[in-house]
């Protein structure tokens, strides 16, 4: 495989270690929902930034609105969508969860994605309520948020035992005042928050159980990457050891209105 091809494949949403498991779940969901509705989906990506998820969704034929507070990220999104030939299916809007009602109006959406955003919003419960409010009946929420136990393990392996203890016991899952994230979640907490928004949780699983711990030098080939992804999938789906998913760097929740 040529170096350029390898870099493209490794960095794509379908194959990158950080996104492939989430993408597989989201793609399966949208294929089922598209078959149910008989048309492309109306999608909202809150905090979608430069379009790492939005552009691949648009390439599948769906209409995607990205709401993000960063004008620089949205400018990159516009360039990426133009380069990939899907600018007519991607709408970039500067705002946040508080802006959704004004942006969406009376339109109801088939899929709302909130990936890597709930950790930094002011009020997670209010954000989830706003997202649930713009979903059509039968519509889906895909929520990905940072997991608590992963940082506990990472801090302990780094010899930062006091920080690991703080992350384990603190209300917000942070390891200290220098922690760059405002909060982290465990699976039970996320499930409760989503259910309180009025949605029905259909699946909760951990992602990136091992990949964030493995040195990059040990993932030097396509075969290594595929083997690691298969290990991740087997660990989270194992009937006896599925609890390993709780160690994932992120928790992925799929819920339906």
Automatic annotation (TrEMBL):
GO molecular function: methyltransferase activity
Domain of life: Bacteria
Signal peptide: none
GO biological process, one term: methylation
Pfam families on file: Methyltransf_23
InterPro entries: SAM-dependent_MTases_sf
Keywords: Methyltransferase, Transferase
Protein name listed in UniProt: Methyltransferase domain-containing protein
Organism: Pedococcus dokdonensis
Lineage: Bacteria, Bacillati, Actinomycetota, Actinomycetes, Micrococcales
